[in-house]
Amino acid sequence: MPAPHALILGGTAEARTLATALTETGIRVTTSLAGRVAQPRPLPGELRTGGFGGAEGLARWIREHHVTALLDATHPFAHRISENAADAARNTGTELIALRRPGWTPAPGDIWHSVHTLTEAAALLPTLGRRVFLTTGRLGLQAFVPEDPVDPLHALWFLIRSVEAPDPPTPRHCEVVLDRGPFTLDGERGLLREHRIDVLVTKDSGGPATAAKLTAARELGLPVVVVRRPDPPAGVRTAPDVQTVLALLSPAAADTYP
């Protein structure tokens, strides 16, 4: 039997916690990052950066490095990576668990508009406000830059928050703030007031690290456009937290997790 080797497809806070927990049990851990952040924070265990070359490349890496468990702890919207993981696990017979933090749910007083895509979110904005807080990350901004020069989106002003500077194109009228969560409620209140924001756009990432903006928007009576997350690939076991992943891998390991 090969020694246990867990490959974590990372990029989330849960992936970091999972890598720490598994490393402490003595399991060999490799965390793979897509490479979209130039200077990622240090991680326990081994680290690789960059794509695998699709499902076939991932399957080849799994075989060559004798991976015994594949743990998909990517962002809930990294759908293509999750599909590749499902295909690679199926083709190699490797155990696969997807760690998916629960999504957000509206609270009393929330004014949420649920959409399926960034394009749908962009289409709604001119009816909801003039000053937009866009918190969907640096990718996908093309949806908010229409080709039609008289599209009403061009009249809106955007505050764009991302970890790293977005590549062009960006909206005609915008300001970019570079920051990384977790964010505080006081900080989010101040940001919304300082920039006179009247509508928020977010992906349903779930988790507490970036949820304060939703509370701040509720307090200020602002509408929120929420992009729904895609469903995980069919047939993949999912877990809502690190402890559940550990329990599925090894009940003994879960017992040692605080």
Can you describe what's shown?
It is a single chain. The chain has 258 residues and is an alpha/beta fold. 30% of the residues lie in helices and 22% in strands. It has a six-stranded parallel β-sheet with strand order 3-2-1-4-5-12, with helices on both faces. The two termini are 29 Å apart.
Question: Concise description?
Answer:
The protein is α/β, with parallel strands linked by helices. Helix content is 30%, strand content 22%.
Provide key terms for this protein:
six-stranded parallel beta sheet; 8 helices; elongated; about 30% helix; alpha/beta; about 260 residues; single chain
Oligomer state of the chains in this structure: single chain
Q: Mind telling me the C-alpha Rg?
A: 20 Å
Order of helices and strands: EHEEHEHEEHEEEHEHEEHH
* Low-pLDDT stretches: none
- Order of neighbouring strands in the sheet with most strands: 3-2-1-4-5-12
User: Which word captures the global form?
Assistant: elongated
Strand percentage, roughly? Answer: 15-25%
Question: How many strands?
Answer: 12
Q: Helical content, roughly?
A: 25-40%
Biggest β-sheet description? 6 strands, parallel
Number of helices: 8
State the secondary-structure class.
alpha/beta
Kindly state the mean pLDDT as a whole number?
A: 91
N- to C-terminal separation? 29 Å
